[in-house]
């Protein structure tokens, strides 16, 4: 197997990582908390928490989970919170006692909550008070015995927290309910000073059940072990070694921590380098995010294409033009060249596109910063990661030809929770089949062509929406664009484009002329629809499936 990518590794970056037995998520965080005890670890809504305070609160909460409600190693504990300080406290506490964390989107509907809680067999839950009405609808249909409730203001100074919570109640954003709940502050009080018993935690033990988006049906829980997550932390840290300084970075966390991208990269990898994580519970409207750059010296950030695009088009951000950024990482969906170029023009910082998926904890590839990289590349496999491009029979395709990207490494999941058939379909001979169409060039750089399921077949020709969206996004009057295939009597399928205007004067005729200049005939959209906005996940991925179904 060719490992041509290794020639582009910076000298300081090792091609492999090594994990020591006895290492697990909590042990790594504990070491960091001791080393950087007096430094600020977490900041949210102006409130700060040092590493020492972070560790103490996690110990108190771990004691409560273990001593008061009887959670034991291997039990599942659901965390349903936005980006507030309570999230990292809860996750850190659970990993201290070997409890499996079930990260849950706080904006889930009652139906989605029910599926995830029931499927995981969660015994306890920490949830924001703003979502208790949805929980009340389905709680009796789950195994959850204890509900811990926290408020946005719980980790703010007393006066500010009380004010924030009062305002939310007056606005009707905290629903009434008839549930028996334990306030988060009460849980900390009950656990305070009692200590907890540390179980023996092995690298092979499951740390997190991270549910996939469920775009092809009911979401599945990826079983991420301590080996998977710690390995990916180490891979990211090794890769970023030339660019970041331990104990000296400030990380903007606008992407939600319940998503594996922000969880592993922002929280676990960069915080564990002694960085200060700025948590942003509500990054939209985008002005909220721009204000963070004005208030803090942000040196590292993660984002998806839509976040970078929104910042590019935010007057406050453009005026500020922050120049402190060392590292800007993009993933989750394709980074469009026009967006990356504009962000670099404004900030002076090149956006490093990478690639990952929930099933790989998540990062498998990233572009290096020390050399010029090919446009639209997802970069090189991380240390201890192998990657291949194969055909439908699992055979390697010729160099430069498209095929399915498959990966292997210590970050690849154990499998899907209670889904042996799905696991067998996704992991074969140790290789994770990603479902993404990709290609590799002679230098070892990889490129995502598109998702297999999103490919459009026009008169026998493969059309990849990413390419069409990239062309549309380059038009100066286009804010965003998404492309799908729709049935067509003549060609089997035809390309339809959904466009959000940046300039109200944009016409369909202009777009048709633009595509004629930039795309061969069969790739050009035959149908256009102008939209006020495009449907997205909470992370910012455009939901093509909703455009297909019209829901």
How are the secondary structure elements laid out?
Blueprint: H1 25-35, E1 40-44, E2 47-50, H2 51-68, E3 76-80, H3 86-96, E4 100-103, H4 110-120, E5 124-128, H5 132-138, E6 146-150, H6 158-170, E7 182-183, H7 184-191, E8 206-211, E9 221-225, H8 226-240, E10 250-253, H9 260-270, E11 276-279, H10 287-295, E12 300-303, H11 305-312, H12 315-320, E13 327-330, H13 337-347, E14 351-356, E15 363-366, E16 380-381, E17 386-390, E18 403-408, E19 415-416, H14 420-426, E20 427-428, E21 431-440, E22 446-451, E23 456-458, E24 461-463, H15 465-473, E25 478-488, E26 492-501, H16 508-518, E27 527-530, H17 544-549
Parallel strand pairs: 1-11, 3-4, 3-5, 4-8, 5-6, 6-7, 10-11, 10-12, 12-13, 13-14, 26-27
Antiparallel strand pairs: 1-2, 8-9, 9-19, 14-15, 15-16, 17-18, 18-21, 20-21, 21-22, 23-24, 25-26
Give the gist of this structure.
With 551 residues, the protein is of the alpha/beta class.
